[in-house]
Amino acid sequence: MTERIDAYADLIVRVGANVQPGQTVYVAALVEHAPLTRAIARAGYAAGARLVDVRYVDQHVYRSFVEHAADEDLTRTTPWLMARTEALSDGGALIMIAGDPEPELLADLDQARVGKARPVDAMNRQLKAQNARTVNWTIAAFPTEGQATQVFGEPDVERLWEAIAHSVRLDEDDPVAAWREHVERLAARCAQLDEQAFDAVRFSGPGTDLTVGLLPGSRWTGGGITTAGGVRHVPNLPTEEVFNCPDWRRTEGTVRSTRPLSLGGTIVRDLEIDFAGGEAVDVRASTGADTVRAQMDGDEYGRRLGEIALVDGESRVGQTGLTFFNTLFDENATCHIAYGSAVTFGIDGIDGLSPDELRERGINVSSVHTDFMIGGPEVDVDGITSDGKAVPILREDAWQL
Amino acid sequence: MATLTPEDRLARYAELAVRVGANVQDGQTVFLLTHVSHAPLARALARAAYKAGARYVDVQYRDQHVRKAMIELGPDETLTYTPDWLKTLAHATSGNALIATTGDPEPELLTDLDGERVGRAQMKELSEIVREQMVERSVNWTGVAFPNEGWAAKVFGEPDVERLWEAVAFCTRLDEEDPVAAWRAHTARLESRAATLNELKLDAVHYSGPGTDFTAGLLDDARWMSALFHTASGIEYVPNMPTEEIFTTPDRRRAEGTLRSTQPLALLGDIVEGLQLTVKDGKIVDVQADKGADIVRGQLASDEGAASFGELALVDGTSRVGKTGITFFDTLFDENATCHIAYGFGIPEVFDGEPGEGMNVSTVHTDFMIGGPELCVDGITRDGKSVPILREDTWQLPE
User: Fold this and answer.
1) Which of A267, A330, A374, B282 sits at 20 to 30 Å (Cα–Cα) from A3?
2) A76 to chain B nearest CA, in Å?
3) Cα–Cα distance between A34 and A54 in angstroms, integer?
4) Against a cut of 0.90, is the pTM above it?
């Protein structure tokens, strides 16, 4: 057990965040993630970190906050959280641990408040740093009983551990070498897609006929990214996607989510969204529609897309056949899109632009970023060239390029 | 009260800490300084604080294992480093409420580390800010313990958390029909003892017992008081739950003799046993112990004032903590079982002069226990007369 968790922590520190000697490592975890957090602290110092600064969040305390806080305080950022966010944004290494131990803890609360509650200024600052590539960051998951119960119907943490270990290639003899190879394969896919210079991507399948416009000159990203200071890191463990920034003005049609989505303490099921002129004009779901609507209405641009990502059937996450109820995994099982803030790693020359200037170029800016899954064997994905031709990208979950 | 469910007991405990301990005021931010392993109590405290009208409850979870990694593997300068955001947080505590939790789940976690590094690992600038706030009396705060398996195992030799909970509930008067009323009566009695001592206008206190012959000079402009505190803005609060002590801050320049601690001391992740100190001209000049002497030495070397005395506290045999007969290996409890003395920072609440003139200044403050039935405590008046204060654990002055 100890060996596996130490190997995992090492992968997170050395491949995920790629912690550099002398850096401060900021860890964001839930109290239930303490065993992995402790292993990361050891691995962080072993990698030469100056300080490992852990911020534990407690969902139960957060629940009391959502229940009792004054309306205007729900979106407040405390000065000390802002100070910490400023510090990590300026050259820190950031490790975020996912894995919700009680995914439905907030389900009985007022969903408008649940959707609204978040420290807006701190989140914007962090998103800005991630997009400006001034922080080497990663997200990795820790298996908890609550999540295991949700995935398997019983608290089989060991089975969840095995699924995660497979997904992040911890079951390889040399996980670091396996990651290197994997990252190169994703980079090659990005190169193929960039060569085609598609104008849009179209998804079609049961309940879905959606066209997402792309931005000229915006490159596809996959595997890893490099900070402005030259530190190569892998933002998600696992990662199976190649993704791009859509034009927030050019999404048309209807999309039906193919997997449940864990969002702010509730589960959104059977999500369907109609888009017109880039905007989500109607949101339906069998559960959790209110949470999605409240989140989208958090600011003026929450209803616009910020990410489009492609994943094929070779995905290790997809191979497990599991729904993890955790976006980090589920988004890597299949194709997905995100409403809210744009991912801009593939766009050059935008450093220092104001939110309005970014939006003018078709890049969405919002304090929201929520991925939801729309892919699967029944969903065809085509690239649309600038002269309107359709080029198959995915058929029955197989990569066509 | 045996009918209380564990959930009810925890909720009642949290309410006592919030309403009597920190005495959280409407609209205050409440800072919880706690450990990952104390999450159930932290959650109950957060609920109770919001119910009491808190604007926001901020939880800072500490993790002893992360700290261990820092001491073991981190660079030297990190040992005493305070991140800027934590300074921002500490400053924001002024005018607000703070609740800290104790109850170490792994009291010997740091035993195998370099004792000198363990002793030195302390956020210097943070301690400085907290010290200023104590002088300003700008924070209504309290400390409460969370019974847990590791702590219970240390106390009883087995992880009997329920037995520890019962002891904690007894010590904190949770077993009373109306704990809030019981606390009012209790603090009134302690206040009256402090008043009696103040009327005597003592010049010094003398301790004698096995291995102990020690005199500490008192200050003209310092008082004896009980642990019923007031912030500068007038909020009444009880910083320790339980509390059984009457205490003052001594003259840092006048202390002489030898001291032998009568109980083990949990300090910075380790246990100090059989502590013996030699004191000359107000300073600790020699430290001996059966175990953990290096940690004490490391702490005493952390700044100029660390080796001088900051607190004298008197506790008699009526103490509920003492009555349990338990060594809790937690200063919050053990210091309330019996008399104790602290080296390091003094107590601004009881001192009218400028800190540094008479009252000791340091970034450390460590209480160790020196009491019990074999210890005699006498007050020395200005004309050199001895006035018995404690004999065989019994209070000798009128109440």
Assistant:
1) A330
2) 10
3) 10
4) no
CB pair distance less than 8 Å for B65 and A38:
yes
C-alpha to C-alpha distances, B294 to A24, A42, B149, B208, nearest whole angstrom: 30, 25, 28, 26
DSSP at B80: G
What is the extent of the structural domain holding B159?
A: 6-171
Same domain, B378 and B298: yes
Q: How far is CA B54 from CA B24, B45, B137, B232, in A?
A: 7, 11, 20, 20
Same domain, B184 and B159: no
How far is it, in rounded angstroms, from Cα A186 to Cα A192?
10
* Residue B1 lies inside a defined structural domain of this protein: no
Q: Which two tokens stand for residue B153?
A: 């195992």
Residue located via tokens 């040992």: B79
Residues B200 and B81 placed together within one structural domain of the fold? no
Q: What residues pair up with A373 in beta bridges, in sequence order? A: A336
- What does the alpha-carbon distance between residue A205 and residue B176 come to, in Å, rounded to a whole number? 67
B58 contact residues in A (CB cutoff 8 A): 78, 80
Report the phi/psi class of residue B86: left, alpha or beta, with left for phi > 0 and alpha for psi in -120 to 50. Answer: alpha
Q: CB contact, 8 Å: A65 with chain B? A: yes
Instruction: Sketch out chain A's domains with CATH numbers.
Output: 2-167 (3.40.1830.10), 197-399 (no CATH)
In chain B, the number of structural domains is 2
DSSP state of B25: P
Mean pLDDT to the nearest integer, B222-241? 93
- Put simply, whether B74 touches A (Cβ < 8 Å) is yes
Q: CB under 8 Å to A82, separation ≥6 — which residues?
A: A121, A122, A125
Q: Are residues B153 and B75 in the same domain?
A: yes
CB contact under 8 A, A50 and B74: yes
Domain shared by B81 and B18, yes or no: yes
B281: left (phi over 0), alpha (psi -120 to 50) or beta: left
Q: Where does a domain end: B152, B171, B190? A: B171
Q: What is the pLDDT of residues B270-321, one digit of tens each?
A: 889 999 999 999 999 999 999 999 999 999 998 999 999 999 999 999 999 9
- The rounded Cα A204 to chain-centroid distance in angstroms is 23
Give the model confidence (pLDDT) of B2-24 as tens digits. 567 888 899 999 999 999 999 99
Residue A33: closest CA among chain B residues belongs to which residue?
B36
Residue B70 maps to a domain = yes
3-state secondary structure at position B200 = helix
Per DSSP bridges, beta strands A336-340 and A369-373 are antiparallel
Surface-to-core class of residue B189, CB atoms within 10 Å of its CB (0-12 exposed, 13-18 middle, 19+ buried)? exposed
Give the span between the Cα atoms of A156 and A149, in whole angstroms.
7
Tell me: the pLDDT tens digits for A301-321? 999 999 999 999 999 999 998
Structure tokens at A185: 């394969």
- A350 and A358 Cβ atoms separated by less than 8 Å: yes
Judged against a pLDDT cut of 70, whether residue A2 lies above it is answered with no
Among B146, B171, B196, residue at a domain's last position:
B171
* Alpha-carbon gap, residue A127 to A307, rounded angstroms: 14
A207: left (phi over 0), alpha (psi -120 to 50) or beta: left
